[in-house]
Amino acid sequence: FTTLAEFRQRFPFLDLDAFLREHGISTVAELRDAFQYLATTVHLRAAEPFDPDDPANVHTLPVALATVAVEPFDLTAGLRAARTVRSASRTLTGAARAGLPAESTDPYALATVFAAAGPADNGTTAAEVVRLLAKAGVAALFLSTS
Q1: Beta carbons of 109 and 138 less than 8 angstroms apart
Q2: What's the confidence (pLDDT) of residue 93?
């Protein structure tokens, strides 16, 4: 490297200004002389704040959703039906998952659909149902009448 700018281009992950300050280096010649002998801790630059609205941060993945509708509200039946669907779907070949840009263990995402008023009828809250089914790898969805 012949300039600090060239060094920055070669090592974009280094905070060069902090490195130079820490080691009392102010010229490219001093950096070149000390380059082979300096022992340092590499500190990566802090990542830019995450912006969920930036198009570069948006990724769309196709997801097949297998749903089980349960009416009236019956948590046990919903979980049992979801597990039956999962068991049956595992007999599909890997071809059903071809082309996905992410690792997949099941060909379907699973969801159990309940009536919105169901959980309150037996004293169970919707949040408790969501947590319970999530532990089994199943999404809990609640229909709204409005």
Answers
A1: no
A2: 44
